[in-house]
Amino acid sequence: MIDEVLMLLEDGHWHTVNELINHPSIKDWSYTKLQITLEFLAEYKFIAVNKRPGHNMKMMIIEAKIVPSLQDFLERMKEVERQEH
User: Fold this and answer.
1) Structure pTM?
2) Residues near 17 by beta carbon (within 8 Å), at least 6 away in sequence
3) What gap in Å lies between CA 32 and CA 85, rounded to an integer?
4) Which has more confidence, 78 or 56?
């Protein structure tokens, strides 16, 4: 469950909740499931979450990205896996 979200965020760019919830790998998730997962990852400092006003200033846009230290760790682990195969 957490792996799917981290894989979507591993590029280090900001991704909106709408973008994430519409991705094929988690398209069957509810908004609540995604929100709880993002809150958990943010609480333990695996991701950063940003809230900003939307275009009409009434809605908030929520976006998330992986923190650089975890991004570096995941890249290093992928490199080790490639070397082992």
Assistant:
1) 0.85
2) 31, 34, 35, 38, 61, 62, 63, 64
3) 38
4) 78
